[in-house]
What does this fold into?
Amino acid sequence: MKKIKIIIAGLITVIGITISCDESGLELTNPNQLSSETFFKSSAQLESAVTSCYAYLQATGNYARYQFYINDNIAGENYAAGNLEADKVQMINRDIDEANNGNNQFWQHNYQGIGRCNFVISNEVNFENIDAAEIKARLAESRFLRALFYFHLVTHYGEIPLVLDLETVVGGLGKSSVEEIYASIITDLNFATSNLLSKGVQEQGRATSGAAWALLGKVYLQMGGKDAEAKTALANVTGYSLVADYRDNFTVAGEHNDESLFEVHYDESTGGGDSWTQDGRGNSETSFRAMEYTGWYNVKPTEALLDEYEDNDTRYAANFYSIDASDNGTMTNTYNNGTQTFISGGIGPDDNPAWRKYQNLDNRGSETTDSGINARVIRYADVLLMKAEAEIRSGGTESVALAYINEVRARTSVGLPAILVSGSSAILDAIKHERWVELAGEQSRYYDLQRFDGFSYLMPIPNIELQANTNL
Amino acid sequence: MNKMKITFITLVLICTQSVFSQTKSISGVVTDESNSPLPGVSVLVIGTSIGVTSDFDGNFTIPNISASSEIEVSYVGMETQIIKVGSQTQINISLKESAESLSEVVVIGYGTTSRKLVTGAISSVSAETIVSRPITSVDQALQGNASGVTVSNAGSPGSTPQVQIRGLGTFGNSQPLYVIDGVVSGGISEINPNDIESIDILKDASTAAIYGSRASNGVVMITTKKGRVGKTKISVDTYISTQSVSKKLDLLNSAQFETFASETYGLPNRYTVDPESTKIDTDWQDEIFRSAIMSNTNVNVSGGSETAIFNLSAGYLDQEGIVINTGFKRASIRANSEFKVGNRFKIGETLAISDSEKLNEEENGDRTLLEHMIKSLPYTPVYNAENPGGFGGTDSTLDNGSDAENPVRLQTISNNVTETMKVLGSLYASYEIIDGLDLKFQYGFDRSTTQNNIHRPSFDEGINERTAAYVGQSTSVFNSDTYTGSINYKKTFAENHNFEALFVAEEFSTLIRINSVQNENPLTDAVPVVQGEAQANNQLYEYDLVSYIGRLKYNYAGKYLISASLRTDGSSRFGENNRWGSFPAMSFGWIISEEGFLSDSDIISNLKLRGSWGVTGNDGSTDYAYSSGLISGYNYTGFSSSTGVSNFGASNPDLKWEESTQTNFGFDLGLLNNALTLSMEYYNVDNNDVIVPIPNVASYGLGESFTQRNGASVNTTGFEMSLGYSHQSSSDFSWSVNVNLGTAKNEATDLGELEFIESNTFEGENLSRIEEGESLFYFYGYETDGLFQQGDDTSTQPNASAGDVRFVDQNNDGVIDSEDNVKIGNPFPTLTYGVSLNANYKQFDASLFFNGVSGNDIYNTNIYDLEGMTRLFNSGTAVLDRWTPTNTNTTVPRYTGDHSDNVNRSDRFVEDGSYAKLRNFTIGYSLSEAVLGKMAKGAFSKIRLYATGQNLLTLTSYSGLDPEIGGSTVSPGQQSAAAGIGIDRGVYPEPISFTLGVQIAF
It folds into this structure.
């Protein structure tokens, strides 16, 4: 009997253990993430979702690295000075393949930006407790950025998938036509222009109505055949002016000045993140540009670009360092607050001029992989030259167009004589020249070649899309 | 328990012979070699069911025994003796410790069995093997000692090892499951190998399936030392080693560099501005590598009475790394004890506490320390007092942008320490309700806290600088709890029908909490802690596993063996759709040597055929992988509120564990009284539903690049063999040899919708690829065909001219492009092996141990730095032999200023990775009993002195520092350490070491 009792006690123990295996413990939710069901219930939450849309502008595929390599290299503004990595050499040779790292990053990070924008725009129905005007302004920011990301993509790839919401289908979306992409960009920008806050009212660094009008004008020009629309849009860009010193557009001190319409923020003091792989997440707040261009001297300005400068154009010295102080008038050959001098052998593998624009070397002895200089996406000089172009292309008045060009040339620090030519072809040539020298190394030449020279080179859709998208 | 089983099994196995004649009574004392009485020793009369056990003083008495009888005296850990009774009435027996007898008991999941009755594939490593050479970690004990187990050099001292059982069948977690004294543990790096009694490796599914959803990578069962009834024994093991690097790379010295630079990139500006400073000649390898001291001391106290046994040990390891400022210290304490209350109730505990400190290797810019060491210019001084921080370095203008970081500064200026405190143990109680019916409850726990403290002061060495001190501290707390309740019933019916049934219910849960803070301190380098505004990060991961396990074993007369088990697991790592899974297994065995026709054979002493089948799982995906949500990491600090929140990744509620189906066939053969033993295995593993990071459609912009999906299948097949010969002799000289070898061939059999999976990014290119029909992670790139010579047609290859590498136009389309990439190497060895030789002559012992791999390839990225000439860095001396119009008979391509195609991924970087290492050569001398008896009134029972050399010899054609490449250097975006297999990114080489040691027992 005693034995049986013990057996029963033992079995009860085991059954007890069995039952105590609490199977409800198997249902765990990730405590490290927020739930989308309960989000968008406050103004601060909406703001944070919109902030995430900006994050991919800073990423490696955009202004931290590949935005400038892809545009400047393909457009022939750079040559490979040091032993440039293979993917960037492909850009110079215009034979970018699907595996090209920059191609993959550029595609990925622009689409990641679009994904963040779609997350805001598609969730509008879930917004609660937020003021209606604020909702419109926030949506407008998201749509401005979505338009910007798509503009990057359509101008570099042509036909691409047009993703405008959060729904996914297996294998991904197929390509949409270039016209459809542009139609979407125009729709977004129309919403943005009418709902964004203006510069001064808007928080510094966020998209403004002025930036949206300027981007709309740029897009119309790039589409071709929409020059009147471009002229109208650009006419709405008001409240900006050229700064006296051209160099102020490329320094930390000159950030968000009167000439600036839209910038991508970089900040050396925040730094912190891994500047080699900036993937939109974490505090990756610095740019590689300064180290790449005139730190490692991976690229230098091409002879064609250097030759384009008129004699005594001070922008030459503003944009480039040289070991020859007499090069093109007065040249900048010192750095580190004038304490050090570029000499033969010290300006890269050859003694040709090197980039000064967006470099920190004026004030220090060497560059690092963490540059805090904001990338200027649109500035007023660009707007003025676009206005001139829209004026001519839409059959407007030549003198009006020349006035815009000459306003840029007459900047205090530049002070070049006015251009006096006539005929739309000659004026367009003058605009093309002025854009090249004024906006050198500012990711403008690529677009200009498409508009002025019928340049049609596009990158192939990269592997990062091809490997998963079966509907292309 | 073990003792009882052996007794039981022995009873079953003994052939029944009845010989009756005159009877008498015998008695005696059983002692160990040091004349301490051994209680609990089994003394059996062979051929009968008569048996007794010795009492606390080692005494035994057997009545009614005939003079023609033989008695068998056996005890766990001792060599069994068979003694003819003859005319003796008093028989005193001294048992010798034995390595072989340990292997008689094999630890399996939730129990033990006898080696003889094993039907699956289990390799075992004994304590004697573990302590026979100076090792510091469990993985080293496994290396080369067990067939089918591959262990790779893990980096700096204290790093987590790469251990693979039967090759690789998954793309994710490939580490085996470690079970320490019945408790699943988070890792083995904190375990002191001196505390280990035995390691049993469950390789096939029938033995591993009892661990269900976590068993696909094999299970390593570690049993720590328990006490024994008898006199308290104290042993002290201590050794000291000196370690040094075994090989150096041929790098340019200052004069050679000057020649090279002047002929290629042009001399850096420094040669004209400050020519004096270019005369410096720094050998960066001498600066980075050092000869390092290691010492290790272990003290063990064990003993016990009939009601309680205990084992208490303490160890202290202090290992300097051969790279400056690396090293590992570990203090550990272990206490195992067990108490008997009455005859049926047992209660016990295992408890290990370890505290370790690891000085980490630094890296920067995705470049390892060794890469910086190769690239640093030889004229750069190590130190420069004028620079903030005190280190020399390059200047962006003077040195033409050559920006390798001063490796000495990189490694020494910072303090990067990982401290781990681990408490691991269990409490258990068992009650034998009736004979053969055991009820057991066990609570196991694993608590570890790992702190990584980093302080990197500011410096400015020129082109490289840190303007503000970086301070980072992260703490990771790992808690796991296991509750196990089990019932085991064992009974023999009708003499020959032996049954055993087991039922287990278990709950296992883990919690990981990670807290980290970091910031930059521009004010001072003197404060090594985070102060002021900081970035904080906090993560919490939980995992819960509920399991029900059943197992039935049956054998008929110890001849025909069959076993079946089923485990059902519910795991929180998977969504509702796939939360539960079942893992069945079965196996059979036929011990032919027990059959009548072989039982009298003088030649064949053991012959067993085995077969098994089973299903196991791998749930080694990350926690919450099936769900997705929002994250708050999309920051943009330009705004007043920098926090960006958005969606991240795509959820996959259908995610489930990988399922592995394995078949194993094997046989064990023992010849000439088991002097010669041979075991062979053949296995076939089909891994299905392998979790693959399926790329998300990039244009969906989901934030995360991949979603974990069950999308692939992998097949692995292989053979394993263990061969041993032990020369048993009564003379002073005895010797033995053991050889084990294994093969493992894997193939991706299905990738679902994917054409291929790429991984291992190096300089913007993916080096490895997985593709249907090919081995995993094979190297992918161009095949090369020498160099172009002057006059050769280079039109197929853009940019190429004489002196450039010629790539093979695989598709003959007249142009070299990405279409011409092919398989250029396989990182998996076709054969892994270990050979050990042991010999004893009088008081001397000697052992020799080789292990190696063959047939594998290594992608040596160091060649890119040594011979690539991609930018102005220091290089290998090979660049002096580069192609020039006057030096055309060479394999090193020309210096190119205009393109870098020569360093495209290609077989130029792929080398044969086969090696054989002389791991260990030891000579020992033990003082004889006669000498010991005279010393200190016979207090010592053992004194052995030994000298060991490790890694004395490496036979390989591999040009890198060490052909043994662990997957420990993980590149960004890589899914797991296993995925880095065969890629040498500057591996921390294994040192040559010389050791002197002494082992003392009281």
Remarks:
- The first helix of chain B runs from residue 2 to 13.
